[in-house]
Amino acid sequence: MKFRLKAFCWHLLASTGALTLVLGALYLGWYRWPGWYLSSALSVVPVLVGVDVALGPLVTLLIANPGKPRRELARDIACIALVQLAALVYGSVTLWTGRPLYYTFSADRLQLVQAQDLLPAELARALKENPALAPHWYSRPQWVWAPLPSDSAERSRIVASALNGGDDVIQMPRYFKPWREGLPALRGKLESVEALAREDIRLRRHRNEMKRRVAALGLSADQAVALMMIGRSAPMLAVFDPADLRLLALLRSDR
Asked: Are 17 and 70 in contact (CB under 8 A)?
């Protein structure tokens, strides 16, 4: 039993170290709050933890028989490690392609833009036409303003595309502008918690809790201080200081 426990501990240590390194790098680079929540990254992480930290070492505990020939034992553990590696690569690629690149203000809401939302052609145009805000492989999430272009024909084309399920302006970084330039437009779109709750049933279910949390920030629940923030999870409520439009809080609507 001592041999089995030793093999289990070493396998657990190696698996935990590898997973911590991968998830730590992704979290520190791209998935800090609210990225992990809005992108629903937690749907991938449990699979990685289950296979790489729980299942792999447990199987090693079962097969690590001191009476087994060393070559056979090494082969068995290598097979386990290969399955773990495949799960780690799959999960890492999934998280990498889904990493948050932008938190955009567009029209009347805030929206998450992930790497997988941007087509290669759009990335190439952004690098050429708007290099200051174009994403690179190392780019960390940016808060930007994504207004429709001033050209009426292009505006109409983008609106029609969005209405028909195609690309919207938030998937066209060539049109992005610095966050601060969009603050005057953002101020005009702020609404009260009650008004936003009427627009979304998930917010409606928790409107009283939202009002309480807004009041805890020193604001009136009836003030126009909030915008809806959209991603792949339940929407959030972004609360701004009415004086200087500083972001005060991002409130989850699922609790």
From this structure: no
Cis before 235 (ω within 30) = no
Residue 218, number of CB atoms within 10 A of its CB: 8
b vs e for 220-239, b when ≥16 Cβ sit within 10 Å of the residue's Cβ? ebeebbbbbbbbebbbbbbb
- Parse the chain into domains and list their residue ranges: 2-97, 100-182, 190-252
Q: Does an H or E element contain 112, and which?
A: strand 109-114
Quickly tell me which residue has 């066209």 as its tokens: 172
Per-residue pLDDT at 201: 80
Tokens 């439009």 identify what position?
A: 245
For 38-70, give the DSSP string.
HTTGGGTHHHHIIIIIIIHHHHHHHH--TTS-H
**C-alpha closest to that of 111 among 191, 199, 229, 203:** 229
The per-residue pLDDT for range 11-29, each reduced to its tens digit, is 788 888 888 999 999 999 9
Exposed/middle/buried for residue 155 (C-beta within 10 Å: 0-12, 13-18, 19+)? middle
To the question of pTM greater than 0.90 for the whole model, the response is no
For residue 114, the surrounding DSSP H or E stretch is strand 109-114
